[in-house]
Amino acid sequence: MKIGVDIDGVLANSLPLWVAELNNYFNKSKQLKEISLYDIQKTYEIGQRDLKLFLERRGRYLMKSAEPMTGASYYLDRIKQHHEIYIITARDKRYQEETQEWLKKHSLPYDELLLLGSHDKKEPCLERNLKVLVEDTLEIGVEVSSAGIAVLLLDAPYNQGTLPELVYRKRSWDEIYRTIVPGPITLAMKGSPRAAVNHTP
Predict the structure, then answer these.
(1) CA-CA distance, 14 to 32, in Å (whole number)?
(2) What is the DSSP annotation of 96-108?
(3) Are the beta carbons of 163 and 149 closer than 8 angstroms?
(4) Nearest to 88 by CA among 56, 110, 63
(5) Quick one: pLDDT at residue 39?
(6) Rounded to whole angstroms, how far apart are CA atoms 130 and 145?
(7) By the 8 A CB rule, do 69 and 76 touch?
(8) Averaged pLDDT for residues 166-182
(9) CA dist., res. 83 & res. 134, Å (int)
(10) Exposure check for the chain: N or C terminus, fewer CB within 10 A?
(11) What is the pLDDT of residue 183?
(12) Considering the chain, what percentage of its residues have pLDDT values greater than 70?
């Protein structure tokens, strides 16, 4: 089975690092629970030019300095033994070297790395026939699930709310692993099976 996995907020514990850097750069005092990397401009009340300048100065550091999420390396390696892993991120292609180095440093295996430069993940997921996407941004999860792709939403303060069909909240990498391996996989919400994804070694 082909599985998509996001980086920031899923494999990488990026948010604390981003908040510290953004607060320092823009002289703010935002708290973690206020922030979503999906919409930095709105949260910090800055324009596109401000964000561009920030990324020019701190972007490469941010892409290679976050700690991995608890259990990410261990469980992704175990999932990789059974399934194909497609790392699919909104990071820009200019950060490919830093991203590859970070993944290698933290022993995070994958079959293909997709740096999209945007939050539009639905079409890339469809093009590669992905059956599951592990994601932390609810808006992306809603869009991808509308194409019939199951989404495992890693719980975070910024992604609370009602989940649509095919989006399933998971609170840890252990939960993600136990949902995916071994198959067949039954993804259930509110105790009722909504979708089955067949296990293909």
Answers:
(1) 11
(2) HHHHHHHHHHTT-
(3) no
(4) 110
(5) 77
(6) 11
(7) no
(8) 94
(9) 13
(10) C
(11) 54
(12) 89
The string of pLDDT tens digits covering residues 66-93 is 999 999 999 999 999 999 999 999 999 9
pLDDT tens digits, 23-75: 999 999 988 877 776 778 888 989 999 999 999 999 999 999 999 999 999 99
Let me know if domain 2-13+68-197 sits in CATH 2.60.40.10: no
How far apart are the C-alpha atoms of 151 and 170, rounded to whole Å?
A: 10
Fill in the amino acid letter for 186.
T
CA-to-CA distance for 99 and 119, rounded, in angstroms? 17
**Which of 164, 158, 151, 155 lies closest to 190 in space, CA to CA?**
164
Residue matched to tokens 């990026």 = 14
Query: Alpha-carbon dihedral of residues 76, 79, 83, 86, nearest 10 degrees?
Result: -20
Residue with token string 């700690």: 67
Strands (E), 58-184: 84-89, 112-115, 132-135, 150-154, 167-170
| Residue type, position 146, single letter | S
Between CA 72 and CA 199 the distance in angstroms is 21
Distance from C-alpha of 144 to C-alpha of 133, rounded to nearest angstrom: 8
Round to whole Å and give the CA distance between 47 and 70.
Answer: 33
**Largest distance between two CA atoms of the chain:** 50
